[in-house]
Amino acid sequence: MLKPLGDRVVLKAEQAEEKTVGGIVLANNAKDKPTTGTVVAVGEGRYLDNGQKVAPAVKEGDHVLFDKYAGNEVEYNGEKYLVVREKDLVAIVD
Amino acid sequence: MLKPLGDRVVLKAEQAEEKTVGGIVLANNAKDKPTTGTVVAVGEGRYLDNGQKVAPAVKEGDHVLFDKYAGNEVEYNGEKYLVVREKDLVAIVD
Amino acid sequence: MLKPLGDRVVLKAEQAEEKTVGGIVLANNAKDKPTTGTVVAVGEGRYLDNGQKVAPAVKEGDHVLFDKYAGNEVEYNGEKYLVVREKDLVAIVD
Amino acid sequence: MLKPLGDRVVLKAEQAEEKTVGGIVLANNAKDKPTTGTVVAVGEGRYLDNGQKVAPAVKEGDHVLFDKYAGNEVEYNGEKYLVVREKDLVAIVD
Amino acid sequence: MLKPLGDRVVLKAEQAEEKTVGGIVLANNAKDKPTTGTVVAVGEGRYLDNGQKVAPAVKEGDHVLFDKYAGNEVEYNGEKYLVVREKDLVAIVD
Amino acid sequence: MLKPLGDRVVLKAEQAEEKTVGGIVLANNAKDKPTTGTVVAVGEGRYLDNGQKVAPAVKEGDHVLFDKYAGNEVEYNGEKYLVVREKDLVAIVD
Amino acid sequence: MLKPLGDRVVLKAEQAEEKTVGGIVLANNAKDKPTTGTVVAVGEGRYLDNGQKVAPAVKEGDHVLFDKYAGNEVEYNGEKYLVVREKDLVAIVD
């Protein structure tokens, strides 16, 4: 099991969508467009200066958008994951 | 549904206004001129160091000016949205 | 109406003064010389880390000096305004 | 009247002293040498994160040394002033 | 014994995994891919601004992923160790 | 009198020591080597975010080492002084 | 005596170890490898924003590893010392 530290979250990134124009597959490389993934594990959170610990506002199974330049790619049991800070999560997609 | 995280806000950006001079359409590319949009969803807010959570000072339906270099472009259900931090919202337009 | 967010202030900038030397109008482009304007609207303020909200120390109608490189230019109802952060207001001119 | 905002102070800068060597006037342009001025007006101060407002530690009439690269030059009623942040005041000269 | 200071942690880094393609050993040099190690010693922690000391959230024997560009390489009793800040630990691997 | 502001300290810098090799005087320009001086005046201190004022930990007459790139050179009554921030004082030499 | 200020510590650095390969002495210049020294004097500490003073977590006589790019080299009574901030001390070596 991967247990992320601090305000980190482990994600299973989704395949980037591809668009086809007349059968030609185009890579989606728009600048600043976040990528989607599913939350696999959530860290215990970060500390505020008053001593309060703030857990990330997402939970296992959440489908999220995250900043595509964020995080560390990790390989675990033959599968690839991404570990990102909570601040790099943009939105939950229901 | 897109549920923005932290102090983020989801916006539906408006078409940039165009100006015509003698029938010629001119792109509006003034430096530092904010762009307008409508608030579609509002995050729960950010934490102050005393543990207090501060929600963004806008609500769904608000028409806002935002810093044009801010935010992440997002595509959801075939529509484009912009997710920006509250600090990049400049003003509400009534 | 334009309702500035956070510690922002909406200003109606004044025409930069021009100086003439022998009838020739010279643009005033002194480095770091602030520009003047009139306060049109004031945001609700920013939060301190103790949770206190601090409103900008100016009010509608105040004549102010502001840092000329600050702010976002905004067009509203055919008039141009400037939205600046309180920290970029230098002084009130009575 | 010029009423400086925040922790700013309005100064009337003094003429930079000149040195003569054999009758030749030399501009004083030593790097990092502060310049002197007289305090004309003092802002209300800045906020600490505990909500306390801290006024600048100088008063009208004080003769001060200030960092020569600091501040905004201002023209008011035909006279030139300098508006500087308290942090750029180096010392009071008695 | 090596006793790390502040929020530092002493790690025994593991050999980077190698992949073979047709018998050829390939160095694993993926950008931003964290490296693994075992926690050997843990510092007493860092201070929050409220005076509270926060110990690192790992303990001796934990198997961790860490940011590969972090830390100081140390040689002690003929063995190599890595000393990293807690913030550069990405996740615990069970 | 020079009364330093905030956490500043006025120093009378000492002559940099010179070394002679075979009678040739060599300027001492070692990188990052602090310089020595005597404390002439001490500011009232800086504010912590809890409102407490912290005075510099040196007193008049102290012989100190300071970071050689720090401070503002000041001329007062025909003598040269250096005004430095407390943080640039390295040690007291007894 | 050298009395370090704030969170500084005075160290007596040890000779960098040298390695010999076939009798040839090789300088040890590994990037980011900390250097060792003995603590000679410890400052009173730094202030947290709650007014608490935090002393460095080392004491006279401690054998420490420190970041090799840190600190100011000081000469005192004909001996060379290094003055470093506590944050640049990496570990205590027992």
TrEMBL record, chains A, B, C, D, E, F, G:
SUPFAM superfamilies: GroES-like (SSF50129). Keywords: Chaperone, Cytoplasm. GO terms for molecular function: ATP binding; metal ion binding; protein folding chaperone; protein-folding chaperone binding; unfolded protein binding. GO terms for cellular component: cytoplasm. Its main location: cytoplasm. It holds the Pfam family Cpn10. Heptamer of 7 subunits arranged in a ring. Interacts with the chaperonin GroEL. Belongs to the GroES chaperonin family. Together with the chaperonin GroEL, plays an essential role in assisting protein folding. The GroEL-GroES system forms a nano-cage that allows encapsulation of the non-native substrate proteins and provides a physical environment optimized to promote and accelerate protein folding. GroES binds to the apical surface of the GroEL ring, thereby capping the opening of the GroEL channel. This is Co-chaperonin GroES. It comes from Limosilactobacillus mucosae LM1.
